[in-house]
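Troubleshooting: if your tokenizer reports a length mismatch, compare your output against this known-good record of 321 residues.
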Amino acid sequence: MSRSAPSTPDGSAPPPARPRGRWRRSALARAVLDRRGATVGAVLVLALVLLALLAPLISRLTGQTPYGYHPDALDPASGLPAGALGGVSGTHWFGVEPLTGRDLFAIVAHGARTSFLIGVLATVVAVVLGVVLGASAGYLGGWWDRVVGWTGDVIFGFPYLVFMVALGAVAPPSIPRTLLLVVVIGFFGWPRVARVVRSATLGVARRDFVRASQVMGSPTWRTLTRRVLPNLWGPVVVIATLSIPERIGLEAALSFLGVGVPPPTPSWGRSISDAIGWVQTDPMFLVFPGLALFAATLAFNLVGDGLRDVLDPRTAREGAH
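Known-good structure output:
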């Protein structure tokens, strides 16, 4: 005998069930966007990501690239941009670079691609290393926990900027500088991630479902990957989001010091470094790349704070006191 479909008390069919994962993601997005700062940060992040992704298309549409020289936009006597505000015009939206006449908007837009690529990939490297080492240290404990902790302390105290300057001087030209930056910046970022993940792992490992898995004789790696790691995604998402602006800032600092991506590849840090010598005569050369770097740092921090308030409210409350 066939079984009739369930119905509500008034006899109508019940509404279709929402996919659980999709409902959780939408609820998380709503909770984060309910916070005004996180909303502002998300809008800024979206705008900067679109600027980076669409930079080649914008260059084709406007005819302005970060490599094109425009001596006609310069004062022949001083080499400074002709016109007010560093040469801002309908053709050059952010003005032009002194001496070369390169379009500053194109430099900032393509520099966003460089900064975001290195910042995001370096964060991925740091998060992967930090999650693996932090979770295993927190779950296994003992000598492995001590080794990971000591190694992280050494890396925390290591002058990585000096190391990167020295490495940039001796690294063979055959190694792409972007790859070198991603690996080095990511490597020096894992201890911070590992500390957060280790602390969260210690809490998860004491929960009943993890202990039940251990009592049932489940292999260590299976308990760690199937029971512990899935319950760490909240702190991992928060620390990853907050790490991106730090990695972007490190790339800018290294480019500022002359050991970042080689010219003529656009970079916010190199633009800021080049602008220092012109700050008295052409301050707008410094303003636009500086504002872009500030906006990216602020945006990711606002989004990260919003995620922390939703996913890890205990940490957020502790930080407020």
